[in-house]
Every structure is written in C-alpha cells, then in structure tokens.
Write a structure and sequence with these properties.
Layout (H helix, E strand, L loop, with lengths): L1 H23 L5 H9 L17 H40 L9 H30 L6 E10 L2 E9 L2 E7 L6 E7 L4 H11 L3 E2 L2 E9 L3 H13 L11 H12 L2 E2 L3 H6 L4 H7 L5 H76 L1
Antiparallel strand pairs: 1-2, 1-6, 2-3, 3-4, 5-6, 6-7
Helix pairs in contact: 1-2, 2-3, 4-9, 6-7
Length: 359
C-alpha cells in the first residue's frame, strides 16, 4: 500500500512538472507536453509490480511500457531544446542584421576598414598601370588631357602635347570662340604629390591624365587644330562646345590610345574612375541611414493617417456645408412666405379701408 502511494506521489510530481513546463512555454502544443510527462512512467497507470491484481494482460502492457518509457522522456527534452535553439537563432539574427539596427559598431567599423582597404588596393593597382604608361616614350609624343572643375561644375577642357596646350577660347574683344595654341606646362611635382596622397591626379581642380600618343609634329598639330576650328561652326554650350572641339581634334592626331582614352572620348568610366567615385559609407552614416529609413517609414505611416484624417475632415465639412445650405434655403423660404403673408394682410387692410370709405 505504501509503495502504491509512493508511485502515485511520483506520478503526481511528474504531472505538476508537466504543468510547469506548459506555463513556461506557449510554443509547444499543450497536449503533447502534458501527455509526454503524464505518461513518462508506466507505474502511474498500472498497479505496483508483484501484486495479486496483476494479470497476464497487464504484465504484457507493463513490458511494452518499459520499452517505450525512454521515448516519453526524450520527446519533451527535444521540444524544449528546439524552443531554446529557436530563441537563440532569433536573438542572433536581431543582433547581426542591420535591419534591426542592432549590429555592433565594431562589426560596422571592421567592414568599413575592409572596404577602404579594398578600394585603396584597387586604386594603387590602377595608379601603377598608368605610371607604366606615362613612363613609356616609345610610342610617340604623349597626349595629356586636362579637365578643370570648379565647385563641382565642369569649366574647361584642354589638350596638352609637349608643353603646348590646344583649346577653344572665347575672344574678349570680338566675343567669338577661337582656337588657342599656347605654351602650358604641367606641374608634375604637384601632380605626383596629389597621386601619392589621394591616388588621383587632381591639382586645384585640374584633373590631368594621359589619353594617348601621337606621331604628329608641332606644325601638323597646329594645322589640324586650325582645320578643326574652321569646321567647328557656331558655339553652343550644350552640343557644340570646347569638349566637342577637343574630341574631334584628338581623333585626328591620336596614333595609339591610353587607358583613359574611353573616359575622355566617350565619357565612359574606367575601373580607375569607378574606384575614385566609390563612396564608402562610414559606420555612423550606415546607422544614420537606417534610422532615417525607419523614420521615413514612420513618417509615411503618419502621412497616410494624416491623409485619411484630411479626407474624413473634408467629407464632414462638405456634409456640414450641405446642411448649412439647406438651412439657409429653408430660412429664405420662410422669409419669403412671411413676406407674402404680410403683403396679403396689407392688401386686405387696404381693401377694408376702401370699402369703409366708399360705404
């Protein structure tokens, strides 16, 4: 008897344990967890062993229950483990996803440093390729392209061959555009300093790069420049300007093209210009962008709510205007009716006075 009570007490404790797990997690179907812990021990629903009440059928059931008993214990453990793993996965995802703005600043800074190092390596490789071209004097006279940019706006283009510049200039006296051929020396020292510091041949807004080589002599270059000017036509800032003039001139003097020729002639960025234009966002910029996106989404939701409120207010105003209009019409009708009644009364009074006077 004591043994039977002890067995049932153990079973009751397991039932209470199952109930506690149900309260701990609402992710697992209640019936499964409760059933697993409720049936974890075959002694709960069978009499104690070696009792006279044991039958052959009950003994068979007891044998089967002892065989499946480990499974009843393992199932709830597996479910609880899955719950914990799911929670850890969600926590990891939130901390390592920029969407939740929970990514660590250290991770952002490391990624930023990797991107900066990658861009720097790409720039160094492109600079070395161009240095090799600039050192090559076996293909003819070098053709340099100078582009002047001021405050983010393109101002002027110039072609330089052997310290002589070729350009299209506006004559101050006549106001017309003419070809100008004059001496002009590239400040190579400052250009090299700019390349070493920023990996870009940009000095005070003048971006100077090698676009090719020519075998023409100075007299030929001057004549070609004059011929291009004679065919140039009327200057237009959009489709017939200094850029078009120099592109036509370069087409006629070029003998071999350099790496930046397509950038000069077709305005097509090479890998060098792509790397220069690449803007790598800092960690603070990424965080600010995420916050701005979230704020924009919130603002969009607020704007939609405001629009709905405005529509509802507009409908109410329209309805109120209709009601006011109807009230005004009714008041006017009542005034007109009162006026008609007063006029009829006055006419009756006048008729009565006339009848009295005649009588």
């Amino acid at each position: 008897m004591r043994r039977s009570n002890l067995v049932r007490q153990v079973a009751d404790e397991k039932v209470q344990l199952g109930a506690n797990i149900l309260n701990f997690s609402n992710r697992i179907p209640a019936a499964i967890v409760f059933l697993c812990f409720h049936c974890a021990s075959p002694r709960f629903y069978l009499p104690a062993p070696d009792t006279p009440s044991d039958t052959e059928h009950q003994q068979s059931i007891r044998i089967v229950a002892k065989m499946v008993h480990p499974a009843f214990i393992a199932i709830p453990i597996i479910f609880v483990t899955l719950i914990l793993l799911k929670g850890l996965h969600i926590l990891y995802k939130r901390r390592h996803t920029v969407k939740y703005t929970a990514i660590s600043r250290k991770g952002l800074e490391e990624e930023y440093q990797r991107q900066v190092a990658k861009k720097d390596a790409q720039m160094r490789a492109e600079v070395e390729r161009r240095r090799d071209e600039e050192d090559d004097t076996t293909k003819g006279k070098q053709i340099w392209f100078s582009r002047y940019v001021q405050n983010g706006r393109f101002k002027h283009w110039v072609i330089v061959v052997e310290d002589t510049k070729y350009e299209l200039r506006r004559d101050d006296s006549s106001g017309k555009y003419v070809a100008n051929v004059a001496s002009w020396t590239i400040d190579r020292e400052r250009r090299e300093a700019a390349i070493a510091e920023r990996k870009m041949p940009d000095v005070d807004g003048y971006y100077i790069c090698l676009v090719g080589w020519t075998t023409r002599q100075p007299q030929e270059l001057k004549k070609i420049c004059d011929d291009v000017m004679a065919e140039f036509g009327t200057y237009n800032i959009v489709w017939n300007n200094c850029q078009n003039f120099l592109q036509t001139f370069a087409d006629r003097i070029i003998s071999e093209k350099a790496l930046d020729w397509s950038w000069f002639r077709e305005n097509t960025k090479t890998e060098y210009q792509e790397a220069q234009a690449l803007k790598i966002p800092t960690p603070d910029e990424i965080i600010a962008a995420n916050r701005a996106a979230a704020q924009q989404q919130l603002n969009a939701q607020n704007q939609q709510q405001i629009q709905r409120n405005l529509h509802a207010m507009s409908d109410r105003i329209h309805l109120q205007n209709q009601i006011n209009l109807q009230n005004q019409i009714q008041i006017q009708n009542q005034i007109q009716l009162q006026n008609q009644i007063q006029m009829q009364n006055q006419m009756q009074m006048q008729n009565m006075q006339m009848q009295t006077t005649m009588g």
